[in-house]
C-alpha cells in the first residue's frame, strides 16, 4: 500500500534523499522528481496529492537541489498549511515555509510597509460585518441579518475579482451574477464601506492581498527582494485560486517558471468566493513546456465508493467535466453505498443516529464518522438525534484544538511536570511516558472511562484523551522519550496547528469537509432544493452543486450512506424528491448514462422508517402569532418566529428547567439529552394537559413521552413530581 497506509503518527525521518521516494507509486514519484520548470499535477480525490508534493519538496531539499528557505508552499486553509508543515518536518525539510496566501502576504506587508509607505501597518479588521452594517445604515439601506451576510460576501467577491465599487453593477450584469440585492445599492454600500475604512485607518482581509500586490507592482526593489528570497513555489488546491491570488502569484514569480501547481477541476466548489478553475485548466496554455502528471490511483475509498463518484461526474457537463479524472480504487472491495428514504427530517436524523450507534458498536471509532449536509442550519436536528442516542459529536469549525482551554491547561501541567522531573510526587508510581501523562492529566479531568453522554464535560474529556493517545503513539515511536520531549513535540504541533484526533462524530457542511476524510460518511438531506440548492439556477451553478456532492462522496473511505426525506416535519406533505444528481445511480432511478456506466454495481435501498407512521397531508408550518411560514428548526419547535411575542409561562419554564437538571444528574447525561431549551419553552408555551397534546410538541417523541411524559404533565398541572430512580441510561 502507498498513500492509503495509515502510517505512524511519528515516522522515522528518511535517512537520505532517495529514501524520501520510498513508498511512492510511479506517478507520485514522477511528481517528486520533477524539480525543474513548470509542473502541473492533476490529482483526483484520495490520490495522495499532499503526499506527492511534500515528498517533492523534501526530496529537492534533501538532495541539495532546493534550499529550504527558498521554497514557499501556499494553500488555502491554516489547517492544510499546518498539515503540510507537519509532514515536511517528518521528512526532514522543516525549514520550508508553508502558508496560506493571506498569511504569506500579511507577513510581507508587515515587513515592507514601513519602507514602502511609512509608519505602522493599519489595523486589520478580522470581522467586517459590523462595518458593512454601518455603511448600509449611512446609505439609509436597511439589511436584515441574512442580507447583511450576503452583501458582505458580495464585497469580498468584488475585491478578490478586483472589481471596484463603481464597476460592480456592470460586472454583475456581464457575468450574470445573482446579486442578493439591487446591484446599485450594493455598489453604494461597498463604496461607503471603503470610505469608512479609510477614515478609520483600518484594512480588511482582502486588502492584505490588494496592498501586497500594489507594493510589489510599484516598488521593483521590494519585488526583487521577495524574488531573491523565494526561488521555488508550490500551490496546492490550485483550482480554488482567485484572480487576485493569481496576480499575487505572478508577482512573486516574476519572469521565472519555477512553479508547481496541484489541483482538480472537479473539486471546484468555491466560485462564490471568486475561485475559478480557469488558471488550472489554462496552465498548459500559459506554460507549453510544463510537465503534467495525473494522479488517479485512489488510495482512500473502496471500489464501491469510487464507482459512485465516477458515475456522479460521468453525468457532469461543462469545461471542468471535460477534464475530469477517472479514479481507480486501490483498496479491497467494501460495502455498497446505502440509499435511504425517510418520511421526514426528524426520522432521517434519528435513523442516521441509529446507524452511527451501530457502527460505533461494531468498532468504528466515533472520530472516523461524519454527517455532512448542504447548509449549517441542518445541523440542529442531527445534534439532537445524536444526543438522544448518547453519541458524542463535534461541530466542524469550532475553536482549534490547541486553543481549547483544557488543552492549554494540560500543556501547562505537562510542562510543569517535565521541569520538576523526579521531584514531582505525582509521577512516583508512573512508569514510562504515557503513564506519566495519564497521571498528570488525571488531575485535569481525564479518566480511564469516558463520562456518559455528550456536552461540555465529554468534550473536555475527549480533548484530554486525544493527548493521552498522542503520548502513547509518541512513546511507541520513540522509546525512552521523556515528558520534555513530548512537551517539545506538542509545542511544534501547536505552531503547525497539527492537532491530534478528537473522538466524536463530526457534523459539518459539505464545503467545510473539503480536504478531510472519514471511514464512514453520511450524506443527508439530498433533496431537490437542497442538493442542488434552490438558488443554483444557471447550468454552471448546478454543475458546481454536483461537484460539491462529489466532494462529499469522496470523503468516505469505507461506509457511505446517502439519504433524503419526503417532508420537513412529521405529518407534512410528502412533496420532496431525491436529488436529480442521484438519477441513474441509486437503484430504481433509471439507467446510468454511458459515460458513467463502467465499474461496480449499485447499492441496496431501504425505504422509510418502520416506526414512523405517515399521517394525513398537512400544510407548511406557520407562526401561530404572525402566520409567516417557518423554516428554522428552532422556530418550528416553538411554532412561532423567534422575534414574535411569547406567551410562555415563565414560572412553569423555570420549574421544568429545575426538574430537567435533577433528571439529567440522575441518568448521568447532559441536560439537553432530557429536553432542549427550545422544547422546554414550547412546553411552557403550550402547557399540555394530556399525553396527546404533549406528543404533538416537536422534540418530545414517543420515547421521551414514555420516559418523561408523566412527570412533565404533572409539572404542567402544578402537581408535585415523585423522584425517579434507576432508569436505564442507554435509552436516552
Topology (SSEs and partners):
Blueprint: H1 17-20, H2 26-33, E1 39-43, H3 49-62, E2 71-75, H4 78-90, E3 97-100, H5 101-116, E4 123-124, H6 129-138, H7 145-160, H8 168-175, H9 183-200, E5 202-203, H10 205-218, H11 220-229, E6 232-235, H12 243-253, E7 259-263, H13 278-281, H14 283-286, E8 291-295, E9 297-298, H15 303-314, H16 319-322, E10 328-329, E11 338-344, H17 345-361, E12 369-373, H18 379-388, E13 393-395, H19 405-420, H20 433-441, H21 456-477, H22 483-496, E14 505-509, E15 518-523, H23 539-553, E16 556-567, E17 605-607, H24 633-638, H25 650-667, H26 677-686, H27 691-695, H28 701-716
Parallel strand pairs: 1-7, 1-8, 2-3, 2-6, 4-5, 6-7, 9-10, 11-16, 11-17, 12-14, 12-15, 13-14, 15-16
Helix pairs in contact: 2-3, 4-22, 5-10, 6-9, 10-11, 10-12, 15-23, 17-18, 19-22, 20-21, 25-26
Amino acid at each position: 500500500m502507498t498513500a492509503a497506509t495509515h502510517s505512524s503518527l511519528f515516522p522515522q525521518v528518511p535517512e537520505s534523499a532517495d529514501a524520501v521516494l520510498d513508498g511512492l507509486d510511479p506517478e507520485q514519484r514522477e511528481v517528486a522528481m520533477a524539480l525543474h520548470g513548470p509542473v502541473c499535477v492533476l490529482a483526483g480525490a484520495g490520490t495522495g496529492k499532499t503526499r506527492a508534493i511534500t515528498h517533492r519538496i523534501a526530496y529537492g531539499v534533501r538532495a541539495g537541489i532546493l534550499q529550504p528557505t527558498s521554497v514557499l508552499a501556499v494553500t488555502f486553509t491554516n489547517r492544510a498549511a499546518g498539515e503540510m508543515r507537519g509532514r515536511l518536518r517528518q521528512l526532514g525539510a522543516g525549514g520550508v515555509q508553508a502558508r496560506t496566501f493571506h498569511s504569506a502576504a500579511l507577513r510581507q506587508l508587515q515587513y515592507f510597509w514601513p519602507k514602502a509607505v511609512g509608519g505602522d501597518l493599519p489595523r486589520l479588521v478580522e470581522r467586517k460585518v459590523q462595518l458593512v452594517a454601518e455603511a448600509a445604515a449611512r446609505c439609509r439601506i436597511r439589511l436584515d441579518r441574512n442580507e447583511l451576510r450576503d452583501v458582505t460576501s458580495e464585497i469580498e467577491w468584488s475585491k478578490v475579482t478586483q472589481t471596484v465599487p463603481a464597476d460592480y453593477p456592470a460586472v454583475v450584469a456581464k457575468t450574470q451574477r445573482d446579486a442578493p440585492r439591487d446591484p446599485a445599492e450594493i455598489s453604494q454600500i461597498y463604496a461607503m464601506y471603503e470610505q469608512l475604512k479609510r477614515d478609520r485607518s483600518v484594512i480588511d482581509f482582502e486588502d492584505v492581498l490588494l496592498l501586497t500586490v500594489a507594493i510589489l507592482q510599484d516598488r521593483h526593489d521590494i519585488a526583487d527582494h521577495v524574488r531573491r528570497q523565494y526561488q521555488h513555489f508550490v500551490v496546492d488546491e490550485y483550482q480554488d485560486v482567485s484572480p487576485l491570488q493569481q496576480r499575487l502569484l505572478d508577482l512573486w514569480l516574476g519572469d521565472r517558471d519555477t512553479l508547481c501547481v496541484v489541483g482538480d477541476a472537479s473539486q471546484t466548489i468555491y466560485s462564490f468566493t471568486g475561485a475559478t478553475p480557469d488558471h488550472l485548466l489554462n496552465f498548459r496554455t500559459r506554460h507549453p513546456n510544463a510537465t503534467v502528471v495525473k494522479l488517479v490511483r485512489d488510495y482512500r475509498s473502496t471500489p464501491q465508493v469510487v464507482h459512485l463518484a465516477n458515475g456522479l461526474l460521468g453525468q457532469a457537463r461543462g469545461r471542468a467535466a471535460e477534464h475530469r479524472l477517472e479514479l481507480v480504487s486501490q483498496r479491497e472491495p467494501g460495502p455498497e453505498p446505502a440509499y435511504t428514504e425517510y418520511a421526514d427530517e426528524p426520522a432521517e436524523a434519528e435513523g442516521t443516529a441509529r446507524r452511527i450507534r451501530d457502527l460505533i458498536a461494531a468498532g468504528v471509532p466515533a472520530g472516523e464518522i461524519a454527517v455532512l449536509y448542504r447548509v449549517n442550519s441542518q445541523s440542529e436536528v442531527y445534534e439532537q438525534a445524536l444526543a438522544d442516542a448518547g453519541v458524542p459529536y463535534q461541530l466542524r469549525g469550532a475553536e482549534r484544538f490547541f486553543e481549547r482551554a483544557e488543552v492549554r491547561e494540560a500543556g501547562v501541567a505537562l510542562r510543569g511536570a517535565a521541569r520538576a522531573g523526579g521531584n514531582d510526587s505525582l509521577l512516583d508510581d508512573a512508569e514510562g511516558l504515557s503513564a506519566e501523562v495519564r497521571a498528570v492529566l488525571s488531575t485535569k479531568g481525564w479518566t480511564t472511562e469516558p463520562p456518559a453522554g455528550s456536552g461540555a464535560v465529554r468534550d473536555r474529556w475527549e480533548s484530554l484523551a486525544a493527548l493521552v493517545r498522542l503520548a502513547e503513539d509518541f512513546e511507541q515511536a520513540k522509546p525512552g522519550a521523556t515528558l520534555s520531549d513530548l512537551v517539545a513535540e506538542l509545542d511544534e504541533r501547536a505552531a503547525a496547528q497539527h492537532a491530534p484526533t478528537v473522538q466524536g462524530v463530526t457534523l459539518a457542511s459539505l464545503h467545510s469537509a473539503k480536504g478531510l476524510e472519514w471511514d464512514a460518511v453520511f450524506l443527508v438531506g439530498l433533496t431537490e432544493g437542497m442538493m442542488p440548492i434552490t438558488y443554483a439556477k444557471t447550468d454552471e451553478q448546478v454543475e458546481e452543486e454536483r461537484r460539491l456532492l462529489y466532494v462529499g462522496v469522496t470523503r468516505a473511505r469505507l461506509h457511505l450512506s446517502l439519504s433524503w426525506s419526503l417532508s420537513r416535519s412529521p405529518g407534512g406533505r410528502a412533496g420532496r424528491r431525491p436529488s436529480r444528481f442521484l438519477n441513474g445511480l441509486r437503484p430504481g432511478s433509471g439507467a446510468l448514462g454511458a459515460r458513467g456506466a463502467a465499474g461496480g454495481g449499485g447499492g441496496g435501498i431501504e425505504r422509510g422508517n418502520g416506526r414512523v407512521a405517515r399521517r394525513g397531508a398537512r400544510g407548511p408550518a406557520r407562526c401561530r402569532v404572525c402566520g409567516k411560514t417557518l423554516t428554522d428548526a428552532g422556530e418550528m419547535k416553538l411554532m412561532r418566529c423567534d422575534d414574535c411575542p411569547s406567551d410562555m409561562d415563565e414560572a412553569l419554564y423555570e420549574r421544568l428547567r429545575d426538574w430537567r437538571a435533577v433528571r439529567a444528574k440522575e441518568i448521568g447525561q447532559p441536560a439537553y439529552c432530557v429536553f432542549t431549551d427550545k422544547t422546554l419553552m414550547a412546553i411552557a408555551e403550550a402547557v399540555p394537559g394530556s399525553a396527546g397534546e404533549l406528543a404533538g410538541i416537536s422534540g418530545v417523541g414517543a420515547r421521551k413521552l414514555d420516559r418523561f411524559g408523566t412527570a412533565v404533565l404533572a409539572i404542567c398541572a402544578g402537581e408535585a413530581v415523585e423522584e425517579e430512580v434507576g432508569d436505564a441510561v442507554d435509552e436516552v
